[in-house]
Amino acid sequence: MLNVHDLERRWLKYKIKSYLPLVFSLFGFLIIAIILFIYLPKGNDVLEKKDINLSLKEEILVAKKSIPTVPVKAIPLPEATAIEVPQNTMTKPTENSSSLTLTPSLHFMDNIEDGLNPYVDEHKNLQQLNTPSVSYNQNYTDATETSSSIEVEKPTIKKKSTLTITKNKDESDLKDVIRRFKQNKNPALSLFIAKRYYELEQYQNSYNYALMTNEIDKNIDDSWIIFAKSLVKLGQHELAVLTLKSYLKTTKSTQADILLRKIEAGDFK
Amino acid sequence: MKSSFYLSSKEVFLDVVDAKEYVQLDRVSTLYQSLKDSVKKPLKMILLYGKPGTGKSMMLNKLYEDIKEQQKVVMYHTPLVDETEFLKSLARDIYGVRPFEELNFTQFNELSEHYTFESTPLVLLDEAQLYSTSLMEKIRLISDARKIKFVITLHKTEKEDIIAKEHFQTRIWESLELHNASPSELKIYIQKKLMKNNCFDVANMFDNKNVKCIHKITSGNYRDTNKLLDSLFSLYDWYEENQPTKINYSNISTKYIEMAAIRTGFINA
User: Which residues fall within 8 angstroms of residue B82, CB to CB, at 6 or more apart?
Assistant: First the structure.
């Protein structure tokens, strides 16, 4: 007699029995895989975590932190623009650039001149320089407006600039720059130190570092100007005039020319 | 009707030795041709051996059917284990002599001297492993006298190999070994068998996967395959009558093959 129900039950039992070794081996494999996954060091995960933790804002802060230590001419412009200037500010000048023509401007030189004393202004100038396709005709007020608008759009940047100002007032940051200058004899660093001492009204020190900069590189305009200004501040007007005149023989520096005229006219004391 | 359809398929695989059901396969066909050629040769004895269920009896039966019109041939399906009975049967079937009360080996030899045939009479002995050693020795002596030619079949086991070696190895004889079917041969065997009985639809239901499963269960043994398929079609017949929705008419279900194997004892579940 054919008992199909009993046969089906026996078949089911047989199938379960036949799949058991496979199930056990799969289960074992899974356990091994899980153990390996848990206990093996995860190098990639650490990197990923680091990447996540380093947000864009932090990167900007780090980049900004390094700016005060580097003088204007030593900063590689493309890197600075990539970090500091938001995209909307980058597009703005390019829109205007087609209608603007590049012509030298004494107003601009005045701005540079003013920017030598307060570091914050210099920083603004740096931003101005960093923005691509910015014409010399663009007036100073436009530039400051742009920079102020950046601070409004990016609160973190604004916050950072505040930090930078605080730092500039402290002489302690100079120690680090001086140490670095002693290590690598970079004229950009010595120029920066000279400018900082000038701002701090330590004219003897600014004279010394400007002199060191000139010895390393004779073709830095700013260095000669700081050197001459320091001499004037130290009461060495004739020597300052002589220095600027001899410098102007080899170069056609507008800044040096303006300063010479100001010293001779007695506008700069 | 579908139910009778499966029933007729079931009947195809009934384990009966019928020459009409003989299925020609490439390898088997070659062997059969060798057997027929051997019968024509002046050999005293031909040995046909192989594992149980490899088709020895079927081949012997086929040979009998094929040559019975051409020469004197006698076939003994059931072994005649008693010596006197065996000799009396030979005297009756070959020489047409009514047996004496007692017929010993010497008397049988004397009787055979009085009869001559165009071609040596052929005696086909199935299941020869059941004959006693002394009777096998008598058979060998009769064949040595070239009065009767014997074709015997043996199960190939270690014990039966010894019998074959001891009694027949030194005689002039031919031995043919039969093997189980390969998966491809088994597929042809099943389909040919079904098609011979007009079960074309069922024959088409067997694909390579089914045959592989059957081969795995039966190892290609023809008798076991017949038994398994008989059980399989019993199951199909039951499902057709009771749960026809469970039948997939395009393919034979592996599940049902396994169930049939459980029922017949090929799978222990």
Answer: none
State how far the Cα of B7 lies from the Cα of B237, in Å rounded to an integer.
6
Please give the interface size between A and B, counted as residue pairs whose CB atoms are below 8 Å apart. Answer: 29
Domain annotation covers residue A185: yes
Q: Is B259 in contact with A11 (Cβ distance < 8 A)?
A: yes
Q: pLDDT band for position A112 (50/70/90)?
A: low
Q: In this structure, is residue A38 part of a structural domain?
A: no
CA distance A11 to chain B (A): 6
Q: Which residue has the higher pLDDT, B95 or A80?
A: B95
Reported as a single tens digit per residue, the pLDDT across B104-136 is: 888 888 888 888 888 889 999 998 888 888 888
Helix, strand, coil fractions of chain A, as percent rounded to 5? 80, 0, 20
CA distance A162 to A152: 13
- Cα torsion B112, B115, B119, B124 to 10°: value is -40
Q: Is A172 helix (H, G, I), strand (E, B) or coil?
A: helix
B7 touches chain A (CB under 8 A): no
pLDDT band at B5 (very low <50, low <70, confident <90, very high): confident
Distances (CA, A) of A217 to A180, A224, A250, A251: 17, 10, 14, 14
Chain B residues lying within 8 Å of A15, measured CB to CB: 258
* Among candidate residues B161, B178, B195, the one where a domain is terminated: B178
**Rg (Cα) of chain A, in Å, rounded?**
33
Asked if B178 and B59 touch (Cβ cutoff 8 Å), the reply is yes
On whether both B173 and B257 belong to a single domain, the answer is no
Domain of B36, in residue numbers: 26-178
- What are the backbone dihedrals phi and psi of residue B192, each rounded to the nearest 5 degrees, phi first? -65, -40
Minimal Cβ distance to B238: which of A2, A13, A14: A2
CA dihedral defined by A168, A174, A180, A183, rounded to 10 degrees? 160
- Mean pLDDT across chain A: 69
pLDDT tier at A159 (50, 70, 90 boundaries)?
Answer: very low
Residue B17's pLDDT band, with cuts at 50, 70 and 90, is: confident
- CA A89, CA B145: separation in Å to the nearest integer? 121
**Which tens digits make up the pLDDT trace of A179-236?**
888 888 888 899 999 998 998 888 999 999 999 998 888 888 888 889 999 989 888 8
The proportion of chain A whose per-residue pLDDT surpasses 90, expressed as a percent, equals 15
Residues of A in contact with B242 (CB under 8 A): 4
Q: Which residues of chain A from 184 to 203 reach within 8 Å of chain B, CB to CB? A: none
Domain C-terminal end among B131, B157, B178: B178
Q: pTM higher than 0.80, yes or no?
A: no
How many structural domains comprise chain A?
2
Query: Are both B116 and B161 inside the same structural domain?
Result: yes
Cross-chain Cβ contact B239/A4 below 8 Å: yes
Helix, strand or coil for residue A75? Answer: coil
CB of B259 within 8 Å of a chain A CB? The answer is yes
